[in-house]
């Protein structure tokens, strides 16, 4: 018998865990499952512009060898230009690392940073890869509270209370997955001040930076704190609808001298994986420099805006359900009133929903939320599909008890 490594004992990734396995079993038994559990644009007909794909296709023949370990120069230059446009000073291609998706770069950044027992401040709820990667790298995720009554902005006093002598970094996810919150400038500046006072590395996940609604403004953390070492993560998956290309980036900004030794380690890790997938890197300059604009989908009458609004309306019409209306990203995070829906085990609830209604959603504790009263609903599907899905959820909740 071969057992798994002990370091996996505390690693969870429930958005692709037991619930998804049960969905596969039901599909193999012949059931059609309506999946609103992953932020994957392509299955819902949201694909990249042809010009981007044509550029990648034309570059395949020249992509047969390894690239620089950090990625091809034209792509890194395009990323650097993008961040200079949004106010991050002095970024060059040498400050950019490309990766096989943001996920790979998160793990690399934490592998190079953490010793056993080191702590990282991570939001709750979070995108669970962050907590899992901290644990996998020998660290300890210290979850700070994001408050629904603050439109899911972080409770800055609670963040401050989590800092200890073992704290090495703070993670910011803005716009947030799973809540859809877009953090205020004041909130971000207060978080950055905590990092400044405590000599923390700032790791900011901004994959949804261009997906904002209703006049909300996304502030790039690195632009607000040019005096701090900040690692900004982004990529092609969401705004440019190229999730399958696994094409992401990490941008290092701020003073380099305090993190020089750490950057040597990051370069070592980049070299050890040889390089990112080379053909997929060619999508980056084509997308970032090609004038591709997602805002028509986000305005009134735009597909994503209309889907968000209709799904939010339907969810809040269900008795005992309320929901923050997200200012960004692709998700709704409805709350089930504990006085109406007495849920003790929310993973069991979503499995029961899956088995009874053939609808696949994600439970709130899968995002390291301490309470069992939330669900995540992806609103990438068309309005007719969302109406069907939320109708199934309403029917389920009307008669469900634990």
Question: TL;DR?
Answer:
With 402 residues, this protein is of the alpha/beta class. The protein has helices at 18-28, 50-59, 73-85, 101-111, 129-136, 156-161, 185-198, 221-224, 260-272, 278-281, 283-288, 303-317, 346-357, 383-399, and strands at residues 34-35, 96-100, 119-124, 140-147, 153-154, 167-173, 201-205, 230-235, 247-253, 321-322, 331-332, 335-336, 359-360, 362-363, 375-378.
C-alpha Rg, in Å? 21 Å
* Corresponding CATH superfamily of the largest domain: Type I PLP-dependent aspartate aminotransferase-like (Major domain)
User: In the CATH scheme, what's the topology name of the largest domain?
Assistant: Aspartate Aminotransferase, domain 2
One letter per element, helices H and strands E, the order comes to HEHHEHEHEEHEHEHEEHHHHEEEHEEEH
**How many H/I helical runs?**
14
Helix content: 25-40%
Structure description:
The protein is of the alpha/beta class and 402 residues long. 36% of the residues lie in helices and 15% in strands. The chain has helices at residues 18-28, 50-59, 73-85, 101-111, 129-136, 156-161, 185-198, 221-224, 260-272, 278-281, 283-288, 303-317, 346-357, 383-399; strands at residues 34-35, 96-100, 119-124, 140-147, 153-154, 167-173, 201-205, 230-235, 247-253, 321-322, 331-332, 335-336, 359-360, 362-363, 375-378. Strands 2-9-8-7-6-3-4-5 form an 8-stranded mixed β-sheet. Strands 11-15-14 form a 3-stranded antiparallel β-sheet. Strand 6, helix 7 and strand 7 form a beta-alpha-beta unit.
């Amino acid at each position: 018998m071969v057992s798994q490594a002990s370091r996996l004992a505390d690693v969870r990734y429930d958005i692709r865990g037991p619930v998804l396995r049960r969905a596969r079993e039901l599909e193999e038994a012949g059931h059609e499952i309506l999946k609103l559990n992953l932020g994957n644009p392509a299955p819902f007909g949201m694909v990249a512009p042809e010009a981007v794909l044509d550029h990648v296709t034309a570059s395949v023949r020249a992509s047969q060898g390894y690239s620089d370990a950090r990625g091809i120069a034209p792509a890194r230059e395009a990323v650097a230009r993008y961040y200079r446009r949004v106010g991050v000073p002095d970024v060059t291609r040498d400050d950019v690392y490309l990766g096989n998706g943001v996920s790979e770069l998160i793990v690399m950044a934490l592998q190079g940073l953490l010793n056993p027992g080191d702590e990282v401040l991570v939001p709750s709820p979070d995108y669970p890869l962050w907590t899992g990667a901290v644990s996998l790298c020998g660290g300890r995720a210290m979850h700070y509270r994001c408050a629904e009554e603050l439109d899911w902005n972080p409770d800055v006093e609670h963040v401050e209370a989590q800092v200890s002598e073992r704290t090495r970094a703070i993670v910011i996810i803005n716009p947030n997955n799973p809540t859809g919150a877009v953090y205020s400038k004041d909130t971000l500046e207060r978080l950055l001040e905590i990092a400044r006072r405590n000599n923390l590395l700032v790791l900011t996940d901004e994959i949804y930076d261009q997906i904002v609604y209703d006049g909300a403004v996304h502030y790039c953390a690195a632009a607000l704190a040019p005096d701090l070492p900040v690692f900004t993560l982004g990529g092609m998956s969401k705004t440019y609808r190229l999730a399958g290309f696994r094409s992401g980036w990490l941008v290092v900004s701020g003073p380099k001298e305090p993190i020089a030794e750490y950057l040597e380690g990051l370069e070592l890790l980049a070299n050890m994986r040889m390089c990112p997938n080379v053909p997929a890197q060619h999508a980056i300059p084509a997308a970032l420099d090609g004038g591709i604009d997602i805002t028509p989908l986000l305005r009134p009458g735009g597909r994503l805006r209309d889907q968000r609004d209709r799904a939010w309306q339907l969810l809040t019409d269900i008795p005992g359900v309320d929901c923050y209306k997200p200012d960004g990203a692709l998700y709704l995070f409805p709350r089930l009133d504990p006085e109406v829906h007495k849920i003790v085990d929310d993973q069991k609830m979503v499995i029961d929903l899956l088995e009874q209604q053939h609808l696949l959603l994600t439970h709130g504790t899968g995002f390291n939320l301490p309470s069992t009263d939330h669900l995540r609903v992806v609103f990438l599907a068309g309005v007719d599909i969302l109406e069907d899905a939320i109708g199934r959820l309403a029917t389920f909740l009307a008669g469900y008890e634990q």
